[in-house]
Amino acid sequence: MPKQTFFNLPEEKRQIIVDVAIEEFADYGFEAASINRIVASSGIAKGSFYQYFSGKLDLFRHLVDILAQEKTDYFRDKHPPGNNLDTFQFYRWLVKTGFGFNATNPRLVQAVSRVLLNEGLYYSQEFAVYREQSTTMLTAMLQQAIERGEVDPSIDVELAIMIIETWNNAITSYFLKEGLQQADIMAWARAPQTQERIEKMLYVMEYGLRKTESEFKTTP
Amino acid sequence: MPKQTFFNLPEEKRQIIVDVAIEEFADYGFEAASINRIVASSGIAKGSFYQYFSGKLDLFRHLVDILAQEKTDYFRDKHPPGNNLDTFQFYRWLVKTGFGFNATNPRLVQAVSRVLLNEGLYYSQEFAVYREQSTTMLTAMLQQAIERGEVDPSIDVELAIMIIETWNNAITSYFLKEGLQQADIMAWARAPQTQERIEKMLYVMEYGLRKTESEFKTTP
Amino acid sequence: MPKQTFFNLPEEKRQIIVDVAIEEFADYGFEAASINRIVASSGIAKGSFYQYFSGKLDLFRHLVDILAQEKTDYFRDKHPPGNNLDTFQFYRWLVKTGFGFNATNPRLVQAVSRVLLNEGLYYSQEFAVYREQSTTMLTAMLQQAIERGEVDPSIDVELAIMIIETWNNAITSYFLKEGLQQADIMAWARAPQTQERIEKMLYVMEYGLRKTESEFKTTP
Amino acid sequence: MPKQTFFNLPEEKRQIIVDVAIEEFADYGFEAASINRIVASSGIAKGSFYQYFSGKLDLFRHLVDILAQEKTDYFRDKHPPGNNLDTFQFYRWLVKTGFGFNATNPRLVQAVSRVLLNEGLYYSQEFAVYREQSTTMLTAMLQQAIERGEVDPSIDVELAIMIIETWNNAITSYFLKEGLQQADIMAWARAPQTQERIEKMLYVMEYGLRKTESEFKTTP
DNA sequence: TATGAATGAGCTTTCATTCAT
DNA sequence: CATGAATGAAAGCTCATTCAT
């Protein structure tokens, strides 16, 4: 976590540092990101950086926190279209809304995803807490689906969650890879064809998971 | 490609260098891998390294070539269980055999996967050739499945391949994450529970793809 | 241009670095000059060097700038002996005064001359600006001489300038070769015999150029 | 001097090594020339090189010897146009013939000149012998001119020789700088305009030296 | 609290030369 | 005599971090 000195900074200055850091991590990943470049681009003193953050990891953690916060804020205003959604409808809404969020701040998403998913930090002890959040939510969702009778109760929950996570990451990766070549990421994200592709990917997952017959049960 | 000098080396020495390199790339990825550490661990002079390889990328490419070669050798002895397999049965056999291969040299798989999949080199021009191989094979497989009537002809082929590739990578990732923590990785890979999980993941994909109704067709 | 950090250094430290660099370039030329040796002799850290300069070329450019500045300062106090000098008299004064300047900082002159004249950088894009200065001045001087009737108007101006530049460089080279072997270089430079030799060299050039008959005109 | 092993080599192999070395020194000068590149381009073993030559300097010396030999051979067939040439006519013939020689093997001339003239080795102890040759010849020529009454006997011989050498080097440099940009060096060297420029330069020197009045005499 | 100079280990790569075979 | 692998010093340059002011 950044030191108190960082939060005492004027909003504007703080924003510059964060923006520059986002660009750096998005462009270079964690290992290759350079504090030297960041302080140079931010226009802050080298020493100041170490008065704000304990190091590179601390700065990156801050970006993760920002992403989590922004995502929470974004979702606070959104509501599922109706009360009678089954779990898969709800999940579909969840992913598509998340996709919409990605389009609002693609560079931040890219920076964090690149490091967490691609450099393996996602599974490190360091960020286990973020993963747990996601796992907890998904587990709850799946439990509810089982209670509602939408999913066979004998399902291998742990595996199902892994599958869902895989899909989430795949969709995010898809978004980042394709989207970055677009001049207008936002327009691309909202385009009907993009939406359609996302839907198709979700359907494949849904029908796979719905098929909850003998093969997809826990070993007796 | 390594220089001739490298291939002139005694088998044993060559093996040491390759083994050390595998560990290095597996532990650090491409960017953070250090030639200094590699030569120190290999017990060769720094200058010697550059008589064997033109640089870090050259060394890594060699690992990729080794992996490709070993995979080819491994598959040469394996045969699908029967002649009448449908596409999904064949694909399931393919993935499971590949999974078996991964267990024979997990660190090599990890080294290459980490760099190609996670550092994005997989999509770079440099390794486009490897990706094309895979894509070509999958496309042919899918075309055949369509001709056989196993898959709806109106399917969005490009998307389907992306989904299959996602699954391949997901299964490889699963293997690396879980498998590497096992003391006896071969035993773990052959264990019924492990096999069952792989099968389940494949069934999810299969039933997802089989569902080739209106939602999963190309836009008219 | 050196970075601001360099100019923020205490005068004394800056002087040490410059002096060491002069010795290095004078002794080894540009290519063979070693940053390692420079930082070792200067007593600064390697990293510090790159906080002062962007690289070897940047450091060398700084020496060129210093030379230009010192030369300007030196000439500011000197004045041609009289108002009615003809062009050749003026040029003679110019060269002799320049010669006097060389004696004030012979190693700096040597360092810069060696690199610019001998390693061909003088004709590189990098230092084209310095050469243009000189060329412009000489051209103006020659035009004036033609207007005054001191030089045949049909002269091949471009060639004449090349000849004058050759003489300038030759005299500088002479100075460096002979002068640097003298214990008291200033005394040597001021000695009547030295002055006389310079004068003779200039006369040879002058009478050669004055002879502006048929052979030395532009081709009709 | 190269070792005997070198001269035992088949003519063809020897020629390849020499040709490659010429290109290397012409392109990079002495310091930056790379034995590594030379042996690679020559197709000889690294160790073999050190059985032929004691080192880089030895190889370069061999090029100088070849140049001297080829120049001698070239001049053996040429004869001054008439017996009654005065010294300046003879010198003009000398320079123009030398210029003609340069055009026959420009890369060799460039390689040697670059190192000797530009990297200062010309004035080093190492190559003093070559310089003495030239000096001896010029001194004899000048003595003869004095005896013939073409040059004032009170002339400062040492200075005159320096001037002549300066011109020689200047003309060679001119040849190398301009000529290298020409697609066809030989054609350029033989072009009337080139010849004319050379003549003009020589006239400037000649008329300068002829002017043997009071100013150009040794100090009394 | 802000600053930015200082640091030395580290990076990848090239070098001329040696020497065992 | 030929070979080419081995070598370690040296090259230019970047790094994250410290610390005195």
Overview of the molecule:
The structure is a homotetramer of 220-residue chains. The first copy, chain A, has helices at residues 4-8, 11-32, 35-42, 46-52, 56-76, 87-104, 106-118, 128-147, 157-179, 185-190, 192-210. By secondary structure, chain A is mainly α. Chain A has two domains: 1-65, Tetracycline Repressor, domain 2 (Orthogonal Bundle), CATH 1.10.357; 78-213, Tetracycline Repressor, domain 2 (Orthogonal Bundle), CATH 1.10.357. In chain A, helix 2 (11-32) runs antiparallel to helix 3, helix 2 (11-32) crosses helix 5 (56-76) and helix 6 (87-104) runs antiparallel to helix 11 (192-210). Chain A is elongated. Chains in contact: A-B, C-D. Chains A and B meet through helix 2, helix 9 and helix 11 of A and helix 2, helix 7, helix 9 and helix 11 of B. The structure holds a DNA duplex (21 and 21 nucleotides).
Biggest sheet layout of chain A = none
Mean pLDDT of chain A, to the nearest integer, reads 81
- Text of the CATH class of the largest domain in chain A: Mainly Alpha
Overall geometry of chain A = elongated
What are the segments of chain A in which pLDDT stays under 50 over at least 5 consecutive residues? 212-220
Q: Work out the helicity level of chain A.
A: over 70%
CATH architecture grouping of the largest domain in chain A: Orthogonal Bundle
- Largest interface, C-beta closer than 8 angstroms, per-chain residues: A-B, 34 and 39 residues
Strand content of chain A: under 5%
Helix-strand sequence of chain A: HHHHHHHHHHH
Into how many domains do the coordinates of chain A divide? 2
Radius of gyration of chain A: 20 Å
